[in-house]
Design goal:
single chain, Endonuclease Iii, domain 2, elongated, 215 residues
Protein backbone atom coordinates (compact mmCIF):
# COMPACT_ATOMS: atom_id res chain seq x y z
CA UNK A 1 0.00 0.00 0.00
CA UNK A 2 1.24 3.48 -0.82
CA UNK A 3 2.20 6.01 1.85
CA UNK A 4 1.10 9.65 1.83
CA UNK A 5 4.17 10.84 -0.05
CA UNK A 6 3.71 8.19 -2.73
CA UNK A 7 0.02 9.00 -3.05
CA UNK A 8 0.92 12.64 -3.57
CA UNK A 9 3.31 11.57 -6.32
CA UNK A 10 0.51 9.59 -7.99
CA UNK A 11 -1.86 12.55 -7.86
CA UNK A 12 0.73 14.98 -9.22
CA UNK A 13 1.71 12.60 -12.01
CA UNK A 14 -1.88 12.00 -13.08
CA UNK A 15 -2.41 15.76 -13.16
CA UNK A 16 0.65 16.20 -15.36
CA UNK A 17 -0.51 13.46 -17.72
CA UNK A 18 -4.18 14.48 -17.92
CA UNK A 19 -4.62 18.05 -16.68
CA UNK A 20 -7.86 18.53 -18.60
CA UNK A 21 -9.47 15.15 -17.99
CA UNK A 22 -13.24 15.37 -17.82
CA UNK A 23 -16.37 13.32 -18.40
CA UNK A 24 -16.37 12.10 -22.00
CA UNK A 25 -20.08 11.33 -22.16
CA UNK A 26 -21.86 13.76 -24.46
CA UNK A 27 -24.46 15.81 -22.57
CA UNK A 28 -25.79 19.34 -22.21
CA UNK A 29 -27.53 19.13 -18.85
CA UNK A 30 -27.95 17.00 -15.73
CA UNK A 31 -30.79 14.96 -17.18
CA UNK A 32 -28.87 14.04 -20.33
CA UNK A 33 -25.87 13.15 -18.18
CA UNK A 34 -28.03 10.89 -16.01
CA UNK A 35 -29.41 9.08 -19.06
CA UNK A 36 -25.94 8.75 -20.60
CA UNK A 37 -24.41 7.29 -17.44
CA UNK A 38 -27.25 4.79 -17.08
CA UNK A 39 -26.64 3.74 -20.69
CA UNK A 40 -22.89 3.44 -20.11
CA UNK A 41 -23.15 0.54 -17.67
CA UNK A 42 -21.10 -2.29 -19.19
CA UNK A 43 -20.73 -0.24 -22.37
CA UNK A 44 -18.05 2.15 -23.59
CA UNK A 45 -18.50 5.90 -23.54
CA UNK A 46 -17.62 5.93 -27.24
CA UNK A 47 -20.55 3.64 -28.07
CA UNK A 48 -22.95 5.60 -25.87
CA UNK A 49 -21.85 8.82 -27.58
CA UNK A 50 -22.82 7.33 -30.94
CA UNK A 51 -26.37 6.71 -29.73
CA UNK A 52 -27.16 9.71 -27.55
CA UNK A 53 -27.08 12.54 -30.13
CA UNK A 54 -30.14 11.15 -31.90
CA UNK A 55 -31.67 10.04 -28.61
CA UNK A 56 -31.32 13.46 -27.00
CA UNK A 57 -32.65 15.17 -30.09
CA UNK A 58 -35.72 12.94 -29.96
CA UNK A 59 -36.35 12.96 -26.19
CA UNK A 60 -35.57 16.04 -24.14
CA UNK A 61 -37.51 15.67 -20.87
CA UNK A 62 -38.54 12.93 -18.43
CA UNK A 63 -42.03 13.30 -19.85
CA UNK A 64 -40.75 12.39 -23.32
CA UNK A 65 -39.20 9.15 -22.07
CA UNK A 66 -42.21 8.37 -19.93
CA UNK A 67 -44.64 8.75 -22.83
CA UNK A 68 -42.74 6.80 -25.48
CA UNK A 69 -43.49 3.08 -25.70
CA UNK A 70 -41.02 0.68 -24.16
CA UNK A 71 -40.62 -1.07 -27.51
CA UNK A 72 -39.73 2.18 -29.27
CA UNK A 73 -37.22 3.19 -26.62
CA UNK A 74 -35.62 -0.23 -26.76
CA UNK A 75 -35.26 0.16 -30.50
CA UNK A 76 -33.71 3.61 -30.05
CA UNK A 77 -30.93 2.23 -27.81
CA UNK A 78 -30.68 -1.25 -29.33
CA UNK A 79 -26.99 -0.84 -30.20
CA UNK A 80 -26.08 -0.59 -26.51
CA UNK A 81 -25.69 -3.70 -24.38
CA UNK A 82 -28.50 -4.60 -21.95
CA UNK A 83 -30.76 -2.24 -23.87
CA UNK A 84 -33.98 -3.93 -22.76
CA UNK A 85 -33.26 -3.52 -19.06
CA UNK A 86 -31.85 -0.03 -19.56
CA UNK A 87 -34.97 1.07 -21.43
CA UNK A 88 -37.13 -0.15 -18.55
CA UNK A 89 -34.98 1.69 -16.02
CA UNK A 90 -35.00 4.91 -18.03
CA UNK A 91 -38.78 4.87 -18.25
CA UNK A 92 -39.12 4.15 -14.52
CA UNK A 93 -36.59 6.78 -13.41
CA UNK A 94 -38.29 9.29 -15.71
CA UNK A 95 -41.61 8.53 -14.03
CA UNK A 96 -40.01 8.97 -10.60
CA UNK A 97 -38.45 12.28 -11.63
CA UNK A 98 -41.86 13.51 -12.74
CA UNK A 99 -43.74 12.31 -9.68
CA UNK A 100 -41.17 12.92 -6.93
CA UNK A 101 -38.77 15.60 -8.15
CA UNK A 102 -40.77 17.98 -10.35
CA UNK A 103 -39.06 16.52 -13.44
CA UNK A 104 -35.65 17.68 -12.17
CA UNK A 105 -32.57 15.57 -11.50
CA UNK A 106 -32.00 15.77 -7.73
CA UNK A 107 -28.68 16.99 -6.38
CA UNK A 108 -29.02 14.74 -3.34
CA UNK A 109 -27.12 11.46 -3.29
CA UNK A 110 -29.81 9.41 -1.54
CA UNK A 111 -32.48 10.66 -3.93
CA UNK A 112 -30.32 9.71 -6.89
CA UNK A 113 -29.55 6.15 -5.83
CA UNK A 114 -33.26 5.55 -5.27
CA UNK A 115 -33.88 6.08 -8.98
CA UNK A 116 -34.17 2.98 -11.16
CA UNK A 117 -30.88 1.89 -12.69
CA UNK A 118 -28.87 4.37 -10.62
CA UNK A 119 -26.16 2.92 -8.40
CA UNK A 120 -23.32 4.51 -6.47
CA UNK A 121 -21.19 5.09 -9.55
CA UNK A 122 -23.94 6.82 -11.51
CA UNK A 123 -24.98 8.93 -8.53
CA UNK A 124 -21.38 10.01 -7.90
CA UNK A 125 -20.87 10.96 -11.55
CA UNK A 126 -24.00 13.11 -11.55
CA UNK A 127 -23.13 14.73 -8.22
CA UNK A 128 -19.60 15.50 -9.41
CA UNK A 129 -20.07 16.42 -13.06
CA UNK A 130 -23.52 18.01 -13.03
CA UNK A 131 -23.43 19.67 -9.62
CA UNK A 132 -19.74 20.15 -8.89
CA UNK A 133 -19.76 18.25 -5.62
CA UNK A 134 -16.74 16.22 -4.47
CA UNK A 135 -17.26 12.57 -5.38
CA UNK A 136 -15.35 9.53 -6.58
CA UNK A 137 -17.15 7.25 -9.01
CA UNK A 138 -15.51 3.83 -9.12
CA UNK A 139 -15.82 2.31 -12.56
CA UNK A 140 -13.74 -0.52 -13.98
CA UNK A 141 -10.83 1.82 -14.78
CA UNK A 142 -10.70 3.45 -11.35
CA UNK A 143 -10.90 0.06 -9.65
CA UNK A 144 -8.16 -1.44 -11.80
CA UNK A 145 -5.78 1.51 -11.45
CA UNK A 146 -6.36 1.77 -7.70
CA UNK A 147 -5.50 -1.87 -7.16
CA UNK A 148 -2.55 -2.00 -9.53
CA UNK A 149 -0.93 1.04 -7.96
CA UNK A 150 -1.55 -0.18 -4.43
CA UNK A 151 -3.95 2.55 -3.40
CA UNK A 152 -6.35 -0.25 -2.45
CA UNK A 153 -6.16 -3.97 -1.76
CA UNK A 154 -6.71 -6.54 -4.49
CA UNK A 155 -9.56 -8.12 -2.52
CA UNK A 156 -11.41 -4.82 -1.98
CA UNK A 157 -14.95 -4.59 -3.29
CA UNK A 158 -16.00 -1.62 -5.40
CA UNK A 159 -17.53 -0.02 -2.31
CA UNK A 160 -14.35 -0.60 -0.32
CA UNK A 161 -12.30 0.97 -3.13
CA UNK A 162 -14.55 4.03 -3.06
CA UNK A 163 -14.33 4.39 0.71
CA UNK A 164 -10.55 3.86 0.71
CA UNK A 165 -9.99 6.50 -1.97
CA UNK A 166 -12.24 8.96 -0.13
CA UNK A 167 -10.23 8.36 3.02
CA UNK A 168 -6.78 8.59 1.44
CA UNK A 169 -7.24 11.37 -1.13
CA UNK A 170 -7.82 15.06 -0.36
CA UNK A 171 -11.53 15.80 -0.74
CA UNK A 172 -10.90 18.76 -3.03
CA UNK A 173 -9.12 16.40 -5.44
CA UNK A 174 -11.77 13.67 -5.60
CA UNK A 175 -13.58 14.71 -8.75
CA UNK A 176 -10.48 15.63 -10.77
CA UNK A 177 -8.65 12.49 -9.66
CA UNK A 178 -11.63 10.33 -10.60
CA UNK A 179 -11.51 11.64 -14.18
CA UNK A 180 -7.71 11.39 -14.37
CA UNK A 181 -7.75 7.81 -13.15
CA UNK A 182 -10.33 6.97 -15.81
CA UNK A 183 -8.15 8.52 -18.52
CA UNK A 184 -5.08 6.76 -17.13
CA UNK A 185 -6.89 3.42 -17.15
CA UNK A 186 -8.55 3.98 -20.52
CA UNK A 187 -5.55 5.24 -22.48
CA UNK A 188 -2.42 4.10 -20.61
CA UNK A 189 -2.94 1.47 -17.91
CA UNK A 190 -5.27 -0.64 -20.05
CA UNK A 191 -6.76 -3.88 -18.77
CA UNK A 192 -4.97 -6.23 -21.17
CA UNK A 193 -2.15 -4.12 -22.58
CA UNK A 194 -0.90 -1.61 -20.00
CA UNK A 195 1.98 0.53 -21.22
CA UNK A 196 4.20 -0.37 -18.28
CA UNK A 197 7.60 0.31 -19.93
CA UNK A 198 6.66 3.97 -20.55
CA UNK A 199 4.76 4.51 -17.32
CA UNK A 200 5.95 7.38 -15.11
CA UNK A 201 4.49 5.55 -12.11
CA UNK A 202 6.29 2.26 -12.73
CA UNK A 203 8.52 2.65 -9.66
CA UNK A 204 5.42 2.79 -7.46
CA UNK A 205 3.35 0.18 -9.27
CA UNK A 206 3.55 -3.37 -7.92
CA UNK A 207 1.63 -4.79 -10.88
CA UNK A 208 3.77 -2.96 -13.41
CA UNK A 209 7.00 -4.19 -11.87
CA UNK A 210 5.75 -7.77 -12.04
CA UNK A 211 4.85 -7.35 -15.69
CA UNK A 212 8.21 -5.83 -16.57
CA UNK A 213 10.04 -8.80 -15.03
CA UNK A 214 8.10 -11.13 -17.29
CA UNK A 215 9.08 -9.28 -20.48
Amino acid sequence: MLNKTQIRTVLDTLEEMYPDAECELTHDNAFELLIAVVLSAQATDALVNKVTPDLFNKYKTPEDYHEVSLEQLQDDIRRIGLYRNKAKNIKKLSHDLIMKHNSQVPNDYEDLINLAGVGRKTANVVMSVAYGMPAIAVDTHVERVSKRLGLCKWKDSVLEVEKTLMRKLPEDSWSDTHHRMIFFGRYHCKAKTPNCPACPLLDLCREGQKRIKKL
